[in-house]
């Protein structure tokens, strides 16, 4: 393995735990894995976190309707022969024709893994197979311009529904990691504030009360805290909120 240093990791919540268990079970059954859910719930990040916990290289591909079956075939070949993991973000943005070819391509990979062969054919090429490769597809169901997955493809992927992340737990642990001593109380206040803002303020596009925004505020607050360790923690968090 290549040592990548002590990289950032996610907070392990009951939700991440559940995704880990389901995803590893899916891999054990030689299937792909399909986390689906609203934006910013941690589908992509949890996949990447699991891959780093398992010591696998994980490549994230942002799918678009411009991608064709040849490109996808190339990616599958690369993943299968190198034993890496691929995370296809917004997989249902691919056009239906490409999706159906993808299911044939991915089926050849899973079939080859099941047969335990060392080399197999994918499209015109014969490639070597590393059975530890993995394919994850993340989706935002019900968005505009997304296609419904074909049944053949659905059968190859274990679906996981990802709902609301445990905001308070994540906040508390992140604050603690940034060096705040009163993390529990601050996290409670912080998430309550965000929940109130989300409910009470008008529903406009430019507001973002998601996990991504919360995280960036907490990181800024951590920087302030390290700059002035003796200041009141409530004041520090308040300043991060106001300035950011
Ligand atoms: N358990 C967790 N601990 C800490 N941070 C988390 C956790 N889960 C999610 N996050 C953070 O939430 C943010 C959104 O996660 P991510 O990008 O994976 O969302 P997504 O579900 O893939 O969204 P999209 O559908 O928009 O792609 C990221 O900044 C990520 O670090
Ligand atoms: Mg994502």
UniProtKB/TrEMBL annotation:
The record's GO CC annotations read: dynein complex
**Coiled-coil residues:** none
InterPro entries under this entry? Answer: AAA_6, DHC, Dynein_AAA1S, P-loop_NTPase
- Cross-referenced SUPFAM superfamilies: P-loop containing nucleoside triphosphate hydrolases
Which GO terms are recorded in the biological process aspect for this UniProt protein?
Answer: microtubule-based movement
Under Gene Ontology molecular function, one entry of this record is: ATP binding
Gene3D superfamilies from the xrefs?
1.10.8.710, P-loop containing nucleotide triphosphate hydrolases
Specify the Dynein heavy chain hydrolytic ATP-binding dynein motor region domain's residue ranges. 1-243
* Protein's UniProt name: Dynein heavy chain hydrolytic ATP-binding dynein motor region domain-containing protein
Organism this protein belongs to: Euplotes harpa
Where is the organism placed in the taxonomic lineage, from the top?
Answer: Eukaryota, Sar, Alveolata, Ciliophora, Intramacronucleata
């Amino acid at each position: 393995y290549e040592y990548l240093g002590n990289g950032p990791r996610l907070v392990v919540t009951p939700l991440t735990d559940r995704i880990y268990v389901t995803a590893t079970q899916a891999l054990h059954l030689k299937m792909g894995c399909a986390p689906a859910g609203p934006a910013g719930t941690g589908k992509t990040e949890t996949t990447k976190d699991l891959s780093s916990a398992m010591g696998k290289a994980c490549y994230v591909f942002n799918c678009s309707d411009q991608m064709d079956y040849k490109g996808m075939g190339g990616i599958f070949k690369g993943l299968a022969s190198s034993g890496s993991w691929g995370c296809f973000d917004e997989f249902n943005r691919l056009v239906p024709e490409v999706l159906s070819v993808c299911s044939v391509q991915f089926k050849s990979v899973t079939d080859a893994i099941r047969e335990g062969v060392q080399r197999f054919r994918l499209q015109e090429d014969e490639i070597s197979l590393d059975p530890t490769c993995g394919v994850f597809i993340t989706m935002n169901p019900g968005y505009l311009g997304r296609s419904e997955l074909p049944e053949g493809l659905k059968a190859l992927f274990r679906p996981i529904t990802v709902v609301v992340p445990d905001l308070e737990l994540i906040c508390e642990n992140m604050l603690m990691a940034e060096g705040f001593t009163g993390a529990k109380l601050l996290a409670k206040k912080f998430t309550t504030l965000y929940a109130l803002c989300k409910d009470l303020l008008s529903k406009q596009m430019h507001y973002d009360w998601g996990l991504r925004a919360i995280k960036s505020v907490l990181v800024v607050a951590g920087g302030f805290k390290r700059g002035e360790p003796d200041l009141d923690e409530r004041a520090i968090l308040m300043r991060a909120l106001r300035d950011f």
